[in-house]
Design goal:
Length: about 290
């Protein structure tokens, strides 16, 4: 069995992970460029934890400027088997008010400036994204939330926009009418890249506001959001601590194959593969490429 290593990506308001013990900072080089920040590696309740600040300390990086490929690549190189994204978002539903945690099960990608795959000319791969979230990881998150008395909604669709601007009213109404649950700026292409890297992935979407469709939130301000972010961060810390305490120490095979997503994905014939690209794929696809 493979030992479980839990990765945590902290979004807006979560720039460190309280409760992490035996902490060391690691800077891992990636052929895909610089990740958002150095990794903070340690343990909680004896479970190995790797933490990455998505926007870096001080919120240095805009959603569109994050190097998502490097972030996932260094998580893979650090041995992460299961990855939890803690992400601030806006809500399209009255029953999902600020402070609510949503365990996302589906994504819609509306970004357009970001590199969304490790693969390309010289090594083409097509992974399934029909079910983008690892169900067992989502179950563990739900159980941890219940144990801590943190109210969560167990499913929802997250639409990811480019940003950094918030939505127009017309966009907000459109997404609401399409039945989406929440809106954010960072979980795509992160979820796609995690699948390509064969890392089980789940999102805790932490609602900060109602987006501008709501008459009381038609002019969302950063100051308003920061107030809710602070309260959400405290709950997220408790959620992660409980998740780590109860998490299986051996990695559980994913029932939807998140951890073997490349089994039938590579389509480029071995003799046609680009060696330079293969070298960059040593961590992400080494299992399939014999690295």
């Amino acid at each position: 069995m493979t030992s479980a290593v839990l990765g945590i990506i902290g979004g807006s308001g979560i720039y460190d992970l309280a409760g992490l013990r035996n902490v060391r900072e690691e800077t891992i080089a990636s052929p895909w460029g610089a990740p958002s920040s150095a990794l903070r590696v340690g343990d909680i309740a004896g479970l190995p934890i790797v933490f990455l600040s998505r926007h870096d300390k001080g919120h240095r990086l805009s959603p569109s400027d994050i190097n998502y490929r490097a972030n996932i690549d260094v998580m893979k190189r650090a041995g992460v088997t299961d990855l939890v994204s803690l992400s601030a978002c806006g809500s399209f539903r009255e029953e999902l008010p600020p402070g609510t945690f949503v365990l996302i099960d589906q994504f819609v990608d509306r970004t357009h400036r970001r590199e969304s795959s490790f693969f390309g000319t010289g090594c083409v791969a097509h992974v399934s994204m029909a079910h983008p979230v690892s169900p067992r990881l989502r179950i563990h998150l739900a159980e941890a939330a219940m144990a801590e008395g943190i109210a969560v909604v167990r499913d929802g669709t997250y639409v990811c926009i480019e940003g950094p601007q918030f939505s127009t009213y017309a966009e907000s109404i459109t997404y609401k009418n399409l039945g989406y649950s929440v809106i954010g700026m960072t979980n795509m292409p992160e979820a796609k890249l995690a699948r390509e890297a064969e890392i089980c992935y789940a999102t805790v979407a932490m609602v900060t506001d109602f987006d501008c469709w709501h008459p009381d939130h038609d002019a969302v301000t950063v100051q308003d959001i920061i107030r809710v972010l602070t309260a959400n961060a405290e709950k997220a810390t408790r959620l992660v601590a409980r998740l780590a305490k109860d998490f299986p120490r051996d990695h559980e095979p994913c029932p939807i194959g998140s951890d073997r997503a490349l089994d039938a994905a590579l389509i480029t014939a071995p003799e046609a593969r680009d060696r330079a690209l293969l070298a960059k794929l040593d961590a992400v696809a080494g299992r399939m490429l014999g690295k």
